[in-house]
Here is the input.
Amino acid sequence: MKNQGFVLLLISATAFSTLAVFMKFAFDAGANLPTLLAYRFLFSALLCFATLILTRQSLTIPPVLRGRVFFLGGIVHVAVSAFYAVSVQLLPVSLTGLIFYLYPAMVTLLAIFLGWETISRLKASALAVCFAGLLLVLGVSFGVVSTVGLGFGLLAALGQACHILLSHRIIADLSPLLTVGWSALATSAAFFAYGVLSGDLLWALPPSGWGAIFGTAFFANYIGIVLFFIGLRMVGPSVASIVMNLEPVLTVVLSIFLLGESFTWQQALGGGVILAGLYLLREGESVK
Here is the structure.
């Protein structure tokens, strides 16, 4: 079961790694952030609902879970997106990415604090190795930085940790497709409301723009989040979040082939270190 969970999480990380590339294509086609997020989550919700209908599954959330699902999508996910966006505006993108990927450590610590999991030396070692590899991949420079930007970056990481832990509790009683569908619809509604009130929402884009936005919805949300939730069920929150350290490595690889960006030996070394950390984690979990 845990080996299957690892495989699903690796596929999820691969799907998530396409997000930055599709976002770049969408922005180049004229989309702005509120428009991209509003339609990304709307399209992903529709994909989930279509799958549920085609497989003759219920679209109804039990009343006891509705509040948690809409809180997950309409509050937590929106907050994470907003905090991350502010941090990117105030800090180098690489530093924001590094701070954001503190969330696996936060997930682990919170899960231990809540009594959901226990920490092992191997899990702690894998977490440290993956974070060291991430530092190499992102090539972070620690100069004079904005403390406000650091604060928002930490809030985004904490929000992501809370998102994973809350999701873990919800999907114990609700299918991942149903969870993603309704929470994404709540997230979309929030960004549509913001876009309309701010006057930033765009209603017309070229076909390439719509295609890129659909790409973010299909790969990052429909494939990425749904498979992440299924894998989360199988391996638990701390292991699932550690495996997702592979995502930025794959993003760098895709950006080389699709966007023509450069690649350094330092990034290659960092990718190898992260893979070593994931192998260490997988072998330790398999022994259990």
About this structure: The chain has one domain: 2-287. The first helix runs from residue 2 to 16. Residues 58 and 254 are 37 Å apart (CA to CA).
